[in-house]
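Sharing a chain and its predicted structure for anyone who wants a worked example. Both blocks are below, sequence first, tokens second.
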Amino acid sequence: MQDANEELEVKNYWPEAGITYEIFIQSFYDTDGDGIGDINGVTKKLDHVQELGANAIWFMPLMPSPSYHKYDVTDYKAIHPDYGTMDDFKQMLDEAHKRDIKVVIDMIINHTSDEHPWFQEAKKGRDNPYRDYYVWAQYDTIQDYLDKKVVTLDSDNIRQWHDPGQGDDYYYGFFTGDMPDLNFDNPKVREEIYEIGRYWLAEVGVDGFRLDAAKHIYPDDRAADSHEFWEEFRAEMEKVKPDVYLVGEVYDMKEVVAPYLTGLRALFNFDFHYTLLEAYKKEDGMLLAKKQHDILAFYNGITDDFIDATISSNHDQPRLLNELGKSKDKLKQAIAILMTMPGAPYIYYGEEIGMLGKKPDPNIREPFLWDVAEQDEGRTKWITPAFSTDNTVTPLAIQKEDADSYFNHYKRVIQLRNTHPALAIGSLELPAEKYPKAVMAYQRKTGEQELYVFHNLGKKSVEIPLPQGFDREVYHLKGAKVNGDKIKLPAFSSIVLGK
């Protein structure tokens, strides 16, 4: 609970520390009865995003594509017909902006679909003007690569050179043969990409891009070229929109991620997600706090103009509730941790109602449950859910009426963050004191506000000394409370204290 006497002003800290809600349109809300979510469905449910307290939406791919996930684009300046029209999108954008909700779209420029007109032309022969839009090599020069058996963090594909069936030339596709990589050594390709970016920013009016596979513009042994490309991309986009928001997917450790900061101001912090899960597994409270402190210090050594895009899950990871053993207490606390830590948090659609899902990917992208089945007019039906069903997940309409629900918990902790500057934009300071192993403790400070945060990640209740000067309860979760000069922290409880 928050101090009833405290005057609370809700602030929008986007992009530096605002909250972004990730939507897979296919599974969100269906308005035309074809079983597939659509842009008009998003427009209809913008109030949900606003009520939750999010400041922006990131849309997974929405351009024409032959696949359900749409990470292989066939037309960069259009909307997939299943999702609606460009006019629908522009109307949704206007309605989002009226609510002070920014809109970021997935931009997939590492590769195209093999059905893209560019590739259809390129594979016709070596003399085709589009041939050099892609990366080609002759069979005898890539034998070693054809034999490779190494997988990476973001791809389990081991065959990266592909035979189009027209002679000795193979094309490069890092992820699959359906997704041929573009050749960024070709100035024409770079200009095509910049023109696509300009179109979405200037003519459509989006606020920025999430850049898929940002690490793979060039092969890993040419990382410096990838860094340079993103700096050029940012400069070109800022000419059109000086405050353009660019967030990159660079799936690696901080030393590999950091050099991308000069081109991509925001980068996803995958370490946050995995370290949080490890902390629960080991009941090691300070593991995440120390990791986050190290990452921020490391990045600050490179630039003070970066955005740490923290995540607890997304469309590529099993649903958080599955990762936490379906523990309601752990999920609630995990989100309290996410919202009281530094960064600009991302929330994956459905997490706020405790949706479930494990690999393969379609099953972590199942339909959102808006209401009980017989009353859920907008529930999508493109897939039969294996995890998030009426038997396993309480729909949003029911959760809204339950003060103890996941949804109302999300709302509370997001409001807590959005009403306390120290939690949104304050520094992260680790305590000198030693606490029991399961306790995560840190201070968040701005010039005007100092808060002390404690989370007990263990299964047993603990009691710790009340830090001097912090005797005002700002928020508590699951029975945590100040008791004289002590703090009582039951299992999976949290408390935020002020001066």
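Comments welcome. The longest strand covers residues 439-445.
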